[in-house]
Design brief:
By secondary structure, the protein is of the alpha+beta class. The chain has helices at about 5-20, 35-50, 55-65, 90-100, 120-125, 130-174, and strands at about 25-30, 50-55, 80-85, 105-110, 115. Strands 2-3-1-4-5 form a five-stranded antiparallel sheet, sandwiched between helices. Pfam families: Ribosomal_L10.
Length: about 170
């Protein structure tokens, strides 16, 4: 599909807006992938808040030019899908999980601001917990001492009640 100049400018502006807010961009080759599989990937990306598009490489090169993701331009060769997200982990996680189940889907590279990653870097990023998971782990760690203290305080009246019940049982048995 050929785009006229105005459409190209609109695409570059849209991608530039996404890149300006991005914390991570993942690039993957989708050559030979069936439409149904690509539709599933798009649905998964939408659920995770990942901007996922198949774009002309030259338009994306223009969009990332002059941004912290400019180093990724060298990796833009062949039919590529671009996953852009504001969460550093979510794009890598969605695309890596999809690549595990689809042999024809190959992750080429990724980038975080001012840092280009190879495939192993993207896989390492995908294995990290998401922001929400990290926050829940932190909250659990912070709540543990308080919860233990509350259980300890609760044990005093509980043991008193158990003692009264034991005295009552002794008197009833006698």
């Amino acid at each position: 599909m050929s785009l006229n100049l105005e459409e190209k400018k609109a695409v570059v502006a849209e991608v530039s807006a996404q890149v300006a807010q991005a914390q991570a961009i993942i690039v993957a080759e989708y050559r030979g992938l069936e439409v149904g599989a690509m539709t599933k990937l798009r649905a998964e990306a939408r659920k995770s808040g990942v901007y996922l598009r198949v774009l002309k490489n030259t338009l994306v090169r223009r969009a990332v030019d002059g941004t912290p993701f400019a180093g990724l331009a060298d990796q833009m060769v062949g039919p590529l899908v671009f996953g852009i997200s504001t969460d550093p982990v979510s794009a890598a996680k969605v695309l890596s999980d999809f690549a595990k189940t689809n042999d024809k889907f190959v992750i080429k590279a990724g980038a975080m601001p001012n840092q280009v990653m190879d495939v192993n870097g993207v896989k390492a990023l995908a294995s990290m917990p998401s922001r929400e998971e990290l926050l829940s782990m932190l909250l659990g760690t912070m709540q543990a001492p308080i919860a233990k203290f509350v259980r300890t305080l609760n044990e005093v009246p509980t043991s008193f009640v158990r003692g009264l019940a034991a005295v009552r049982d002794q008197k009833q048995a006698a």
